Amino acid sequence: MLRLSRNGRNWKRSLVKAKRIGDVSPLVKADAKNSELIPRGFARLLDHSSDSLRHIQWLWKKDILGQDSFLIGPPGPRKRWLALASAELSNREVEYLSLSRDTTETDIKQRREITSGNAVYKDAAAIRAAVNGRILILDGIERCERNVLPVLNNLLENREVQLEDGRFLMAPSRWDHLVKTGTPEQMLEAGLIRVDDKKESLNKLLDVGYAINSPEARKLGAGVFPVDMVSRLSPLINEAHTAFSLFDRLYPYESGMLTDSSVKSVSGLLASDKLDLPRERHQLSIQNMTFADDNAIINVSGKTGIMSKAEDSFSLPSTALSSGVENPDRIFHPTGGRQHQLVEILASLSVGDVALIGNRGVGKQTLANEAARILGQKTEPVLLYQDMSARDLLQQRVTDEKGDTIWRYSPLVNAALEGRIAIIDGLDRLFPGTLALLNQLTQDREISLHDGTRLVSAGTFAEMLSEQKISPADLNAKGIIEIHPAFKIIALAEPPTSKSQWLTSEIVPGFLWHQVSPFPQNDETSLLVQSLGIEQSVAADMTRFAHSLRNSTDPALRSIAQSFSTKQLIRVARRVSEYPSLNVREELQRAALTNFLPLSTQEALDRQMNAFPAPSSAIKSTQITSTPENLTIGSVSCAITPAREPTKVPSPLFYHNDAVLEALLSDWILGEHILLVGNQGVGKNKLADRFLELLQREREYIQLHRDTTIQQLTASPALKDGKLVYEDSPLVKACLNGHVLVIDEADKAPTHVTAILRSLLECGHIRLPDGRVISKDDDADIKLHPDFRILALANRPGFPFLGNDFFGACGDSFSCFAINNPSMESEKKMLRSYAPDVDEHILDRLVATFGELRSLADRGQTQYPYSTREAVAIVKHFQQYPEDGLQTACQNVFDFDIYNEEASKQVLEVLMRHGIPINARNDDIRLAAELREGDARLEYERHSGLDTDKPKHGKEDPKNEPHVGGNTWAGGTGGRDTAGLGGKGGPYRLDKGHDVHQLSDEEKADVPEHVRRAAREQADAALRDRLKEINMSKHDHEAYQQFREPIRNDITNMRALFEGLQAKTKEREWLNNQTDGELDDNKLVEGLVGEKLIYRRRREPDNNDQGFDNQKPKRLTILADCSASMYRFNGNDQRLTRQLESLCMVMEGLDSEAARNKVKWDIVGHSGDHRYIPLSLVENMPRTDKERLKVLQECASHPQFCFPGDNTIEATREQIRRLAADDEADERYLILLTDANLERYGIPIKYLRDALDLDQSVNTCVICIGSLGDQAERMKSGLPAGRSYIVKEPNEIPAILRTFFQSTLLKL
């Protein structure tokens, strides 16, 4: 039992440390037993303004009243500083607990530990504060899960709580009353513990909001400027570092954290003369460095213009005596811009921790390593991943050799204690609530660990030693440990986006921010020439091409630019330098895996590559020569050594892709790791195994899946004899023994899991879950073998495989190869090897059949890209069981689609076309699609010269003979007053199918206003009558089938497309800290000590969870063209019919349960009369044929009765704004159907282009379904690649939409 000292009455009013604020003095505890728990140095961090003093006075008042306090305010350290300063001035001991989404009840109350084989309870922060009369500060209430904090309710309200070890904490008044009936010792023996009557709980709610503190900035909605951190930069404000140049470090407003409009507002505010910020930026460089008294002193200088010169000197604590040696594995190109940025980073490190923001491949890691080298500091790589908990960030719970539970420091804590520079990679991957845990460390240089240990700054540690007059060992024994003064953090992150806004106002104050941009073009060219020795002209063409993509206005091309980062250009240049015969264009295409880009994007990229010679189309014959000492593939040779473990060398059956093997070998010689990407079944595994067989290299194999964890990829925990042990994964074995790790299905694992490979491949360093380090350093726990390589295999991103984008996440760390199906000759050769007895003609027909099926899949007309794997399955069956016949052998593969009528029909059509008999019933599956032919009509120019009188419908001709001119018959052409085509003054259009005699626009416009007004009134009345008639149709089914029947196949393809759309949000999340479900490997020690919350289970993301993206549907709007020209020229090119069939196809394609859950859609139209015609709304999407027919009939009616005009631009803008405002969407799409008739109304195509770019959160495309002359072609050429298409037949729509949806994936 714990005996409590009854010192609650020893409190007294005095002014030991604090002065009076107004008429209020604090309650000061003069006899603190644990003075190391009293905060130090926080009072001087405050500005001592009246506002700060008022807050501290309020806290003292609450203390005197014995009330708990709750501080609410903008993000930043100010609330924490106020609470700690109040405690410091009143000489109060503090227990500090930073809350996160991973905080559990045991972190607050009690935790079990195993000591000497016995399970014992250890009090956590809240209980220690309660029994010892300390202030409890809970930081981050909003980050904690809702079901955790109620455990404190009874303690806060009644000062009582039942503990897991059987003790009961009791309110002081009740304890004092009960103790009169017995002795304190008897009370303790009964498990009754007195709560100290001066316990104070300060709950700090760190609010995430957008309000800048100055009155002008509050109106911008542009985030919270960290005013409390301005003083941190005061030592740097001089002639070398102006206040303007330091602004971005505190507030990286151009990094992506703000919207475009907010960035413009902040930029305008900075440009205001009211701020009076000097705007000069000096280009600084290091002049010299000295090392003395455990400090690195850096002298820099620079100049602006001709005469102005700036000099500066700053120092940083360092454990080195000189700068480090150059790292041969890193290329740091000391251009003026990079030198200046390096100086700025070093200057920031002299006053705080630094974060570098930039896209992949721009050199963040290189800058961080170079800064550490200059300072002579050792680095500690810290890789963050999405599933990392707040506990993992600081400590890990393990067992020692006796089986007792202990806490192991994380790499970050080790770096803090040893004075290393922690390079934290992946700030953008961690949940913001977990990342906020670092705020206390970066802002205060203090942090409380989960085992109760407290790390403090060197200055605070020295003050404690002086006050208590004890040794450092004694202070360490009290749980107080010094942070080494040379410890620094350099964090790396990719920029925030609208989809991943990780840089919140709570995170901003924690670091000094530096944005790392790509090299300027000239500097990048110089880097390639000087470092790799390629020709100046080739390097210039490469960098010019890369910069054209980075600066493109086309979002798809800008996204592809990430595949041509400086890192990738260096990789391409190295290959070209080493193998001059390589084609530069082909190498650039390989770097971006252009084979898997949408066709329209490929075409746009090819136009950007015109400066490079096209690759040869000749088929290259590659010879392989292998001896025990040497391997030659084509023109590339390398030495080989016999395998030490021959049983681990694969031995596959392989018959194609020798040319790919040559390219693989050339990159292997350069030391690259390899990534093979392709459709399933194209032979990636066989290619990898054949390559390793030729090299005589041992293979370690691991197959990933959606539930693969960091532990499974590295070292998996297990309990053995009551001790926690770790079993090495194939990755660890390969690193240790120098084997090749083959990672199969690399795209199936979450990208935050596979992202740890980046640290291993780029830095040669990775820390395992058991604390061991794999590194190139000689003193590493596991020295990385120089022969270690990774050969990863992944399916192509996107539909239909829908894996994770491994190429996007890790592709720039590998040399990438797109693996396609073998050529027809190679495929036939492979099939022959499996089926030597099968007739030659059957093999020919099979090869041709699969070639056509793959072509259909590429065009979007079938869903599955049948591969060589299926062809092999057919011939193997036919070889072994020829008596079954070819039909049965084929059915083993193609029966998968037997329950899909249209899919089966397409496959059977291809099979029968190539002479492969399949017994399909004619009444079940038709073998030919119906063809529709439209008769073109003639048009004639005509002049009437007669005046209009009174608009009318006109007489109906029962014989439907053509009528030209006049004003009697309905459906005539070139006349006046009656409904028809090509005339003037009629109420609406009416097409009887005859040739058109067209009046000129000038004559049609010369209509009196009263006639025009009467015509409009008649048109409106006729439209109302038509819409009523639609609801009363008696032949709905027959009418609808006229639209549906010709496009049955296309509806099937469309339905499969929509059902297969991949949501950007994760399919389901792991819910941790559960009482049931699947045992969590990270909770084995907790299970060992008997805790209950050791399970995890899958769940749909909770809408209220902070840090989780909600599973939201996609939002689609079809904007139909209901203008007059659609009806007028339908007889020419069937544009209105094509639009109606396209809308029918989309509505039918979205009519399935799976599609309804994934896509919320509507169809709206526009005409010359209206910019918004609601045809089908989201809240009332059509579900029956009758409802869909009504949409089609309304869409057909408006073009007939509306007046000429065009609202395309206005309608497009309105719908984009509406979509952008929809927060309940995963992605937003606008598809504009148009007949490309803008020029008729004098509307430049540029206006449409600008409208489509109105909001980048909405993916837009234009589908031209009609055209007069080359209008559609001109429109397409004036719009961005991948966002404009021309349709001649409705069956082209599914392929176009698939291409469009795939192109939007490039924007992720």
UniProtKB/TrEMBL annotation:
Residues 939-993 are annotated as: Disordered. Residues 939-962 have a biased composition (Basic and acidic residues). Gene3D superfamilies: P-loop containing nucleotide triphosphate hydrolases. Residues 968-986 have a biased composition (Gly residues). InterPro entries: AAA+_ATPase, ATPase_dyneun-rel_AAA, P-loop_NTPase, VWA8, VWF_A, vWFA_dom_sf. One of its GO terms (molecular function) is ATP binding. One of its GO terms (cellular component) is cytoplasm. Residues 1115-1305 form the VWFA domain. Pfam families: AAA_5 (PF07728). It comes from the Eukaryota. This is VWFA domain-containing protein. It comes from Oikopleura dioica. The lineage of its organism: Eukaryota, Metazoa, Chordata, Tunicata, Appendicularia.
